[in-house]
Amino acid sequence: MRGRVPEHFLERGAYRRRRIEEAARMVPVVFALLTLLPMLWRPAQMSFSFGAVWLVSVWAITILISAILFRMLGRSQPDPPSADTSLATEPADDA
Amino acid sequence: MTPEILGAIAIAYVAFMFVLAHAADRASIAGRWRWMDSPVVYTLSLSVYCSAWTFYGAVGYASRSGLEFITIYLGPSIVFAGAWWGLRRLVRVARMHRITSVADLISSRYGKSPWIAVLVTLIAVTAATPYLALQMQSVTMALGAFAEPGQKLPGAIPLWVAIGLAAFAILFGTRNLAADERHHGVVIAIALEAVVKLAAFIAVGCYVVWGLADGPADVLARIDRFSTTEAAKGWIIQPERWAVLIVLAGSAVVVLPRMFQVLIVEAGDDDRLRHAGWAFPVYLLALSIFVLPITVIGRDLLPAQSDPDLHVLNLPLSQGKDGLATLVFLGGFSSAMSMVVVSAIAVSTMVANHWFVPFWLWLREIPITRRPHDAPRRDDLRSLMLNARRLGIIGVVGSGWLYHQMSGGASALAAMGIVAFSGMAQVVPSLLAGMLWRGATRRGALAGISAGAMIWFVMVFLPSLGLLGQPQLWAGIDPFAGSVAIALFVNVSLLIVISLFDFPPPAERLQSFSFVNGVAPDAAPADPAQSATAEALLALASRIWGTETALRQFRDAAEEQGKSGFLPDLTSRFVSQFERALAGTVGAATASALTSRVLGRGAVTVADLMDVAGETQRTKETNERLELASHELARTARKLQESNDKLTAISSQKDAFLGQISHELRTPMTSIHAFSEILKEPDLPGSERERFAGIIHDEAGRLTRLLDNLLDLSVLEGGQARRHAEVVNLHDLIERAVTLAEISAPGRPAQIERDPLAEHLPVITDPDRLLQVLINVLANARKYCDAPQPIIEISTRRHPDGRTEIDVTDNGSGIAADRQTLIFEKFARLNEASRIPGAGLGLAICQEMMGFLGGTIAYIPGQGGACFRLILPHLPPTAHHPQ
Amino acid sequence: MKPGIDVLLIEDEPSIAEAIRFILSREGWRCAQWSEGSEAIQQILGLRPRLVILDVMLPGRDGLQVLAQLRATPEIASTPVLVLTAQGGPLAAEGASMVLAKPFANEDLRQAVRSLMPAGQPRA
């Protein structure tokens, strides 16, 4: 949706943000490949201590990277406010 | 440590959870404890993913199949790593459409089809039942581990567990029907349980790694030593299972009913996913990291026949660490409890919204716009929904218990986790396609889901119960992975092929457009029928949400349009917002059916779709700020229009005012004039003379009353009136008002309905003025109520902030919307055709009088008749000027 | 419904109606009374009074509307109509034979009835 806006060149902040968004999209894909391919390729070697260490390391690094990326994305949040107010967003708890 | 003491601890723990949940619910109503809505609590509540199957079963699983257990936690972690663009979209769209469950999501996307919802609910119930049984089983098993050899535990434990958890779910999951389905009490309880189970698991893990083994290196060495043994064959990864399980777990974290509930329904906004996106994987990693160590150490230290599912408990027990074992028991209990409670709430919402309520509405064509006069409660539909959910919870938990009893708690239960995963995964293709591909259609989804679910039922579900043999597929292929792959393949193929050849109706295309593009379908359906009024919608909303909530929602919507009062214009934006808000309570399909029934509108047409398309195009082209400005402008214009209308009406009324006042004064004057002249005639009989003098007297009295009223009004308007406040019992005041109104406004007898107990409220006010207002309002109701048997209902209540509310409602036809803004003007007699002498000033005086007392009087629409609400402040104003 | 009614009084205020009836019957006119607007024309058609006294503010139907319909109904179009009004200010009563403002002097009423009555004298 965002890409259809007829702006061809962005100022620095928006440019940086777009690259971060792309990086954030890549994270799960890379993570999935790293947890799938070695296991499908060499199941016998990956089934014991080496596999365990490998998975835990990949997992921990992914968490670290996504935490950093999400934090950067949050800092420059230019999201338009939801157009949906009143009926739609007011929580209505009733005693 | 005996099972009895543990049982007592468990009961105390549950009692504590009740107290906590109750406090949280209260705090959220009062607007306190804002941290409850934080990303931390949200992330912790997601841990409901880790049920007792994780807590005990992960070690058992690892003991049998090695590293494969970790797929169950890797799948969700992959999905959450993509939280920012994947899940966030889903949460955003689901919140936009006020989705209540996964069945509701699919049904809403595919043209609000009730049948898809019925089908998805069926799958959810089928998959959840054995899974719930597994949780009850885990509690019994864990208690058994503490028992002396040969000691027999009472057989009723699962029953009591079921009863306790169902009670918890009913108390905190069906407390109210809000326009959004959030349960703060439940969420805070499961967040705390998340901490307990993580702490317990980490404690036992650390104890095992550093207490029983010599640190991580030793653990790894033990794994390597084990890998050379014959038993290690079972640990070799089967690639097809590995891939299928990661996919299933990744799906399950979204579509399992309980996960959908905490992840999407309970999410306050989509921004918290930014935090949960990395924090939830941390939680999963922290849990899984100790599974393998506990497995190998358990294998080394515990006797061979010991059940690996209970290693977590047996390791500390065998070393005499009773305290640690108790903590582990509580952790396991927490996992079971939060899973059962959230599943029960989620599945029962589906069962109630998609099975019970539509069936009930279909069974009895309930007249929805007006409350039948014999129905004493205004929120009857609301209690119907709540009871349907309560019944749902009892049904869901009860069937879990029944299943547990019938299966005898056999080991067949152990595999139920992934069986449930693979069942719910059948809705994933339709969900993904629904979010990404506008071409996916209802028929395609219906065919895909039902075929996939059928294959799953025969090839996975029944064999897992031992009712059918494992299907024999190609040699070397794991039967489970193969069956799931076949089911998903057929599912996806049917979805795509049928969708390609299908042509969906406009209503469905509108929904698909909204879901895929993340746009609110505001410029939605056809014009409502002429007869439709906002009042009818309000009446419907009152019956579902209760009067107060409904009024608040409508007032806000009217305010947004720049209108005062409770009745917004029926713009397509408002109607679609209303329908979605309703969907947040009863599900999209039912909400759509109810709204259409009230508005009497037909299905969406192709022409409407074109309108929407045009609208969206324009919106895209317009600069956002411009749009905001024009929205503001439209608001102002509407406000201006409204005050202009009112001014015009008032001005013509001011013109009529002199004529009116002249008429009101001249009429008694004429009689007085004529009769006094007649009395001057000498030859009148005495009886006649006396009667005529009586008439003169009466008419003079009428004249005086009129002048009094006018004077009252001008004194109040001029702000010179003296106020004297005292404490009075509202009950006495109402009692007097009812009697006096009867005397002052004879005519048709009206039945007065009151709640004397609720009326005993002390109020600080000027009793004479309030009495006058009450008399006026009651007399008004008696005069104008046009029901064959007039009933006037008086209800009172005190708000927490000290305000007192008095509602006077009759069962007549109410006041037309276009007159509602005028009734408080002087001499605005509603129906000139049925002129009643002396009326015209009553409500204007009431309004001035209430303003004088610091309160308000308002007409409340949509209550089945005319309803006036008086609101008194805690204390009357002290200044001498009203307002 | 006896024939030969002199005056049909259409007025909803009971005490005013009573006063007028009293005044007129002492003059010897035979009076009937009707107290709302929507069926006033049927009453006039049925009773065929020689004179109609019509109040402007009537329940059911406005007095002026009744007057307009009376003038448009051939059988009774020529009946003289005395209009009573309680509104201050001049009243544009199209088709009224005479307008009398409330409150009125009893003598004014007597004179107005006498002058409007086609034959001039009471039948009695």
Automatic annotation (TrEMBL), chain A:
<keyword id="KW-1133">Transmembrane helix</keyword>
<feature type="transmembrane region" description="Helical">
    <location>
        <begin position="47"/>
        <end position="70"/>
    </location>
</feature>
<feature type="transmembrane region" description="Helical">
    <location>
        <begin position="23"/>
        <end position="41"/>
    </location>
</feature>
<keyword id="KW-0812">Transmembrane</keyword>
<feature type="region of interest" description="Disordered">
    <location>
        <begin position="76"/>
        <end position="95"/>
    </location>
</feature>
<protein>
    <submittedName>
        <fullName>Uncharacterized protein</fullName>
    </submittedName>
</protein>
<keyword id="KW-0472">Membrane</keyword>
TrEMBL record, chain B:
<dbReference type="InterPro" id="IPR004358">
    <property type="entry name" value="Sig_transdc_His_kin-like_C"/>
</dbReference>
<keyword id="KW-0808">Transferase</keyword>
<dbReference type="InterPro" id="IPR036097">
    <property type="entry name" value="HisK_dim/P_sf"/>
</dbReference>
<protein>
    <recommendedName>
        <fullName>histidine kinase</fullName>
        <ecNumber>2.7.13.3</ecNumber>
    </recommendedName>
</protein>
<dbReference type="InterPro" id="IPR003594">
    <property type="entry name" value="HATPase_dom"/>
</dbReference>
<keyword id="KW-0812">Transmembrane</keyword>
<feature type="domain" description="Histidine kinase">
    <location>
        <begin position="660"/>
        <end position="876"/>
    </location>
</feature>
<feature type="transmembrane region" description="Helical">
    <location>
        <begin position="384"/>
        <end position="404"/>
    </location>
</feature>
<feature type="transmembrane region" description="Helical">
    <location>
        <begin position="40"/>
        <end position="63"/>
    </location>
</feature>
<dbReference type="InterPro" id="IPR036890">
    <property type="entry name" value="HATPase_C_sf"/>
</dbReference>
<feature type="transmembrane region" description="Helical">
    <location>
        <begin position="277"/>
        <end position="298"/>
    </location>
</feature>
<comment type="similarity">
    <text>Belongs to the sodium:solute symporter (SSF) (TC 2.A.21) family.</text>
</comment>
<feature type="transmembrane region" description="Helical">
    <location>
        <begin position="6"/>
        <end position="24"/>
    </location>
</feature>
<feature type="transmembrane region" description="Helical">
    <location>
        <begin position="242"/>
        <end position="265"/>
    </location>
</feature>
<keyword id="KW-0902">Two-component regulatory system</keyword>
Automatic annotation (TrEMBL), chain C:
<feature type="modified residue" description="4-aspartylphosphate">
    <location>
        <position position="55"/>
    </location>
</feature>
<dbReference type="GO" id="GO:0000160">
    <property type="term" value="P:phosphorelay signal transduction system"/>
</dbReference>
<protein>
    <submittedName>
        <fullName>Response regulator receiver domain-containing protein</fullName>
    </submittedName>
</protein>
<dbReference type="Pfam" id="PF00072">
    <property type="entry name" value="Response_reg"/>
</dbReference>
<feature type="domain" description="Response regulatory">
    <location>
        <begin position="6"/>
        <end position="117"/>
    </location>
</feature>
<dbReference type="InterPro" id="IPR011006">
    <property type="entry name" value="CheY-like_superfamily"/>
</dbReference>
<keyword id="KW-0597">Phosphoprotein</keyword>
<dbReference type="InterPro" id="IPR001789">
    <property type="entry name" value="Sig_transdc_resp-reg_receiver"/>
</dbReference>
<dbReference type="InterPro" id="IPR050595">
    <property type="entry name" value="Bact_response_regulator"/>
</dbReference>
